[in-house]
Each structure stands twice: as structure tokens, then as C-alpha cells.
Amino acid sequence: MRNYVLRRLLLFVPTLIGMSILTFGVSNLTPGDPAFAFASRLANRPATADEVAEARKDLGLEGGLVPRYFRWAGRAAQGDLGISFSTRLPVRPELVQRARYTLQLAIPAAVLSVLIAIPVGVISAVRRGRFSDQVLRIVTLAGASVPSFWLALMLIVVVAVKLSWVPSAGRGGAVSYILPVLTLSAAPAAVLARFTRSALLETMTSDYVVTARAKGAREAVVVGRHALRNALVPLVTAIGTSFAALIGGAAVVETVFVWPGVGRLLVEAIGQRDYPVIAGVVLYSGAVFAVMSLVVDLLYAVIDPRIRLADEQ
Amino acid sequence: MTVTMTGTRTTPEGGEGLPSELGRMSHIWAVLRRDRTAMLGVVLVVGLASAALLAPLIAPHDPNGVDVAKKYRAPSGEFLLGTDNLGRDILSRLLIGARLSIGTAVVAGLLIGVIGLVMGMAAGWFRGAVDAVISRVVDVLLAFPLFLLALGITGLIGPGLRNLTIALISVAWAGYARIVRSAVLAERGKLYVEAARAAGASELRILRKHVLPNVVAPVMVLTTVDMGVVLLAVSGLSFLGLGVKPPTPEWGAMLAEGRNYLDQAPQMTVFPGAAIFLMVLGFNLLGDGLRDALDPRSSRSLQSH
Amino acid sequence: MSYFRKIGVVVVFSLLATACGGGDGDGGTPESGQPAVNQELRVGAGEDQYVREGTSANLGVQPVNANIAETLTYLSPTYEVRPLLAERWEFRAPNTWRFFLRPNVKFHDGQPLNAQAVKTTLFDRVAQQRGGGTIKAGPNSAVVVDDLTIDFTPTAPNYRVPEQVVHPSNVVYAPGSDAGNRPVGTGPFRFVEYQPKERLVVERNPDYWGTKAKLSRITFRFFPEANARRLALEAGDVDVAFGISGPDVKGLRSRGFEVATSPVGSYQAMYANIRGGPPHDLLQDPAIRLAINLGIDRKQLVEGVLEGQATADQTMIPPDALGRYKSKINGFPFDQARARTTLDNAGWRPGPDGIREKNGRKLTLQLISGFGGAEVHKPVPAYLQSQLRNIGIGIDIVERPDSASYQSLIDSGSGDLFLERGSQNDANVGFLPTLLFYTGGSGASAQYTKLFAPGPRFDQILAPAVTEPDADKTQSIVADAMHQLIDVDMVVIPLAGLFQIYGLKKNVQGFTPHPSLISLRWDNVSLGSNR
User: Distance (Å, rounded) from C-alpha B167 to C-alpha A53?
Assistant: First the structure.
């Protein structure tokens, strides 16, 4: 078991290196001079040559691309993600805080989506082919098809502005979480519901379930204890993936609700050519994804001993 | 999201070729026709696609016809979906924009599927160094949320619909490749492959005649569904300002602009969003229907007894 | 059943996680049912752009000015220079400015305001910036004459110092204070708390030297998007919102909000690339530039597209800043017929698609949108495109989302028309023309003059402004230069004069809208009853 974990972690390292190179390359080869962007934003007019030179010095942009990469990579390996160009503050504390804010949306949204998805999926699978199933299938499909930014805007206009039940934007008291969480959970709920349905359908027609039924077990027991339990394996993967996506920060939803999360941080950083922040965010989401998939794989191995054994051969 | 590898078909001799593909297609169609929700999807996709194709003919007004005096009009006889902040007809803009949105989604979806298929087959079949390289690249690409990487690449190569599409394609093929690879790995070990090899068939022929048909099915489903994903991603990125340049009526860009006029002209937000929604829904319904048609365990599928 | 137990654990865990992180105290919970006497104002400001380190650290000062620290002179909403921390000043030849400081002024930490403090925290600080800032401060420029008198000698001839020190980059801090984290100044409000990208809180300074503030506390919340700010105002989350966009004004008013507009302080204009190489060499022909000027209906642009929230001024520099000389600039009427004839006479004939052609070449120009980001200019490019199509000029719009990518196009000269927005944030009227179009001196931006410099006649007219001590005469010289730039050389094609639009709840009183956001003052603001 320990070997398994260690091996997985080791495999993760080259991936991380590849990601860092990709990130650094992408963000540094963008056209335009970040020193000019920074100085001009500061002055609110095109910056003078002096101001640009000063900004370049302050932001540490002197030197070639390759030495800059190694400097950055070396520091990043020790946990120092550098200084943001736009705020001149260290990247990591801000990233951590914004990630926390994103998590405050992602976790409730993930939980909500699972709470909705599983019952819906179960009902849909159990009543397969009947009217309720058809309706649920269309509803979940609709949920998976709605553009999140559109849903967000509609919700804001109706609930926040017309009815004034909740604030329209920004992170504030508990009430301000409602709309963003609802918006974020819609698509994953729909997708997971569909997934639950199909996973459950598969297990329900498998041999041991048929056997259990033949042995006279009650339907609820059959579904709950046997079918669902075995559908859990792919289900966990799906939940893990959707959670990883949520943690990555839904840039669009965070933009519409002006939520100070990681997704919006990335959009802002790209707009401001803030290389260190871009690199930091990308590294963060890659790390999150890798950890998530490791956790999922571990859960897999715990839930289903066959997988663990097979992999260790 | 995992896709169950079903619908495999063993062809011991492997000499069936094109006519059987066509026969299979008409089978699929027959099954689909009985599925109401899938038909709804077909209607949506075909309907919207035809509207897109015929757009220049059926658009009632010039989509770029600025007439400030006529701005903010609600839906009426003259402007079926109303006008926007510069007095342009929203319906005409939606129609012309449909060509962009749907065209991009279809082309990008197909390219993603094809590239993913090729890469996945290469990795799964030839293994060794080829597999190692491709798999590493796939891992790195999959570690990034799709949106994020597309965002970054668009920042690099510049905004614009073409660049955005390139960015999306260059990232999204990874998901397919991984699935195809596992499918190929599964097929590889099967008896009929051994048999074909023993019979002297070349590697390429085995790939083409035996492995490919069994792998195409889930890819086909995924591709259809993913066209919806591409559409959402493209309109999302346009919404964030990285897509088309004005005055191109791409649906996501129209939504972004409409956001500033929620009060005066809600039609600028409601209709483009509805259009995106309907199109994605269509793709999803169709993809769902295809999945059911190809799944042997579903009561509707080809292989049902 | 184990299924339910697992779900239960997850629910409990997530509730705990949310509780630990979320609901961080008071971040903006709307107050309700408070007595009318509560003088706590909430402001919806733009993006948080505070710099926290280095010689340009400006927390609480710029661009959102919380009136914590003050400058020697103050810019009035009509662009006059008024005394603030300096009671008066005089110019001593050949190049020294003597400031007489106001007596009995204390910093928030009790230290007195004196010449030594001004030297250390203003002039010496600015001297450390490369080039010495706009005032051109050097390490030995500031000399303490006595406790309340200080001499400042810039490193190069600079006749505009009083007009320049109105700018908040030239505030005076308390000696030893931390400008990036805990700013201490002389202003009517003092620093309380700051959450990066979320809010800045200040409270009344009871020992202020001038009229004490009526508000007890101001909370500035940061909303990078205009939409979000407006929505916050409508939903009651803030009392004042900055930067309301033109189209939203009518809706706000109909919902019972006040909308206060300032005098003109900014402009929107296109710069014509008159020095480009092919394919961007079309605008070297003055006939085309004239046709463009005549072919834009600026009145419809202002009233229809910008919803009346702009003026049809064609001056680029705010008219108030030019004073009585603003009429030297004429601008152009909207005359499509004359525009078409001008192009006809220049040999450009309409092609089959309506776009003019000459010698097989199409009259299509690339419009780059723009400085400040493409978002702030929408939907003007699309409007311009349709206007110019009516006279047979094709416009290809290229958008750039931020300054850096826009700048790369200026660097490479890849464009014909460049759409920009700019504001006048101090009283130095000659600054922008000198920075962007003047080739007679050293302070200009090489990238801009490479494309847009009008040439020797313009330089000749503007040159005396650099060495003219009298502010009034300077205004006249600059007005002449702008006449040359806009009316004769037609390098700048002004579109509209812009002003600041502030949204207010009805009970906000005493608010004076300032055209330059960074010079906004809160001393007289108070909250009436009826929230």
C-alpha cells in the first residue's frame, strides 16, 4: 500500500515540472511588456520611459528567459512563489487566501450537487423508462447545458435586484454565498445525476444483483446495499473530478459575482500580465488536481480490494 | 468522467468494411428514431444548424446595421427579438452568430475527436517510448482545468475566435486520448487480435479493421457531447473578452455586452443565452441517444435480443 | 446505513469548513434599521490598485483617495490650483519654488507638519523615483528654510511645480510612517483597516486642521467591474458608487438614486498614425483624416451611444483646464456630404461593396481599441465602424484587453487609428501633449512620437510652454498647440469629453463630484435621514 502511494507521488513530479515549464513559457511569451502595463496602470496614462525602466527594475524583469525560469523554479520548489506584479505583495499568501475563498464556494457547491444528484440519479435509474425518468433526464440534461454565466446573470437580476433577497455581488455575510453556490452546483449536480443513473443502471443489470433479487431480497436493499455500493467506484471518480474542477475556481462565476477567488485571480492576472501570479495559480491547480486524483485512486483501492491487488502486480 | 466500454463487436475475419458501416448507421438511426428525447436533440441540432446555414437568406435585417435611434426596442413585429444598444436586430445577429458558434463547435469537436483518437491509438498500440511521451503530455494537459489552459494560451497567442479554438483543441484532445488508449489496451489483449496476427495481417490493418470500430463508438458519443462543451467554453471565453472582435455577433460576446444593459435591454442577455442553452442541450440529447443506442445493456440498443 | 453515514460526515465536514472560513466578521453586511444619526458611509470603488511597497507605495491615497494624506496644493473640480498644506508659494528665479506651510497642522500621530517633514516624506521620497517623478526632484532639491518654509529646486527647469504637486503621488506623510501598510497623514480621515482587494476603512480625524469631517467612518469596497458596483448600489450594499456607465444613469434615477456628474476631466479620442509604413500609411493623406473628422456624428455619439453622459467637446484637454483659451480649438462639424466630396477629390472612388478604392487599394483602416482596455471603449468602435462605412471608409476593429498588449501594437506601429481614453489629473495642461506628441524635448514617449508626432510647426508652438513661468500664458500656448494638433494637423481626432459619473443614495449630502477621481474630497459629505 505504501509503495503504491509512493509510486504515485513520484509519478507526479515530472508532471509538475512539465506544468511549470508550460506555465512559465506561456505567461512569459505573451506579447506586450508587463513593466509598461504596470507603470501605465499606476499613472493612468501611457508611462514615460523612466517610469517603465523603474517598473522593470522593481518587478525583477531584467535578464533572459531561461535564467529567470530557473530562479523562479528554484524558489517555487521551496515554497516561495515570488512577488505579484500588480500588488507587489508575495504571491503565496494571496493565493492561499483566494483559494480559501474559492473553497468556501466549492465545498458547499460540491456537497449540494452530490446531495441533489444521488437521489435524482437513483430515482431515475429505478424508474427507468417511465415518465418520471424521462422528465428527470431532460431536467438533468438541461441543467448540464445551461451556460453558468447566463444562469448567474438571470439569478442576479431576479433574486438580487428585483427581489432584493440577497446581495448582488461580492463576498460578504452568509447570505452572499447563496447565489454563487447555487449557480456553481447546477451543472455538476446535473452531470453527476446523469452519471449516477448510468452507473447504477449498469450495476443493476449485473449478475450479483440479479442473483440478489432472485434470492428474494427487497428492492430497496438491492438498490441500496448492492447496486449503489458497487456503483460507488466510478461515482467517486466522477465526484473527485467535478470537485477538482470546482476547486480550480470557476472563473466565469467568480467574475459575475465578483467573488475574490482563484478563478477570478487568474483572469485578472492574465489581464495585467502578472506572470508570477499566473504561474502560481496554474501550479496550484495542477497540484490540486494531482492530489485529488491521488485521493480518488486511494479511495478506489480502499473500496475495491481487487484494484489494489491488481495494480501491485 | 469515465465512459463504459460497451458495444464491442468481435469480427473474427475482419472483412466487412464500408457497407457494414452504412448498415450499422441505418441501424443506429432506426433505434434513435424510437427515442423521444434523442429525437428532440436531433430536431434542435438540425434546426439550429439549418438556421445557421440559411442565415444570410433568412436574416430579416443587417446584423451590423447600426441605427442608434432604434436602440433598446423590445421584441416587436419589425424586430422579432428586439434590438440591442446600437439598434441592431438581435434575431439577425443570433442567426449570423449561429454560423460561428455552431461551426466552431462542430469543427473543433471533430478535430479534438480525431486528434485524440490518433494519439490514443498510437499510445495504446505501439506502447514503449511513444506511449511514454504521449501519456506524459496527456497527464500534464489533463492536470490543468480545460478552461484555465485555454485562457492562458489565448493570452499568449492573442484573442480572436480562431486562436481561441486552436487553444481549446490543443488542450482538449488529451481527455479523448486517454480513453482511447485504455480502450485500445483492452482490445489488444483479445484473442481475435492474436488470431489476426497469426493469420499474417499487418499491424495497420488490424488497427483499422478490428480495433478502430470498437473504439469509435464511445468516441462518437463523447464527440457529440463535447461539441456542447466546446460551445460553452468558446462562449465562456468570449464572455470574458477573449474571443471575437466587434462587431462579430458571437453568442458569448453578445451575452457579455448585454450584461451592461440588463436594465434597458434584457433581450440582449436572455436570447443569446437561450440560444447557447438550446444548442448545447441539443448536442447533449443527441449524444445521450447515441450512447443508449450503442450500449448493449440498454433495452433500445442494437444488440438487444 | 453506511451510505447515509458517509453523506452525514461529508455534510458536517463541509459545514465546519465553511464556518471556519466564511462569514469573516463584518465584510459588508448591510446595516438595517439604524438610527438616522449613523454617519458611516460605504463606497463602491473600482479595482484595488494600491501599491504596498517601494517609493511609489500609496495605500489609501491613489487611485482611491481616502483623504488620509494631503498634498501641498489642491486641484479644484474646475482645475484651479488651491492652497492646501501650503498656504502660499512663490517662484524664485532661476528655478526655485518656495512653499509657505500652514501653521498648527498635526499628523494623525501627533507629529507637527513642518518643512523637515515635507522634505523627507515628499521631496526626498519622490527624488528616489527614477527621473525624480514629474516634478523632477533630486536628492538635494529640497532645502529647509525655516520651520514652515521650504525651498524646492528641481533638477531641470520646471515651471509647473504647484500644478503638479496637486497630484496625490505627491502627498506628505508623517515621518517614519509606513506608506504601504499603515499610512499616516494630515487628512480629515485616518487609517483604520485594510483588506487587500476587499475593503479599506478610515475614520474621522477629530484633530483635523480644517473643517472637521461629518462622517464618522468610510468603508471603501473594491469592485473591479462597473456592473457589480452599480448592482451593489441598487441592492443597498453601498451608498456611493464610482464610475457609473452612461447607459445606467437613466435606470438609476428612475429607481430613486441620485446621479452626480463632474465637469469634464477626461477625453476619448483616436490618434492617427501619420508616420506608419505600409500597410499603415493611408493616414498620411490629410484628406482622409479630414473626411474622418467630418464623417462622425459626434452629437449622436454623445446623446445616442453614450446616453448623454458625455459632451461633444473636441479639445482633448478639459475645457476648464484651458480656461478662457478653450475657444481657440474649433473642432469639426458633422458633414457627410463634404466628407464624401473630400474623398472623391482625393481619388478614392466607391467600390462594389461600398468601400472606396484607389489604384486597386481599398480604403480600410485598422482601429485599435484601446488604451485602458477594450472594455471601457465599448460600444464606440462598432459605432465608428458603421459611421465611417457610410462615407466609404472600411474599419477593421482590433481589440486589446489590457495596456501591455495594446502597447505592443504601438511599439510595432501596427495600426492606423488608436482609440484612447485619458484624464487630466493635475493642472499641468501641457503634460499630455508634451508626453505624446512633442519631439522638441526629452520627456516624451518615443513609441508615441514615432507614430503620432505632428511635426515642426507643432513643436514650435508648444516649445515656449516648457519654459513659461506664467500659468495663464502657458494655458494660451497649450491651447494654440492643441489647435494645431486637432484642427490643422488632425493627428488627434477627438470623439467626446468625458466626466466622472457618481451614483448616490438619496440621503447622501454634500458630495462634490470631482472630474479627477483621485482628488475627490469627503470632508463635506454626510448622511441624511431616510436610508
Answer: 33
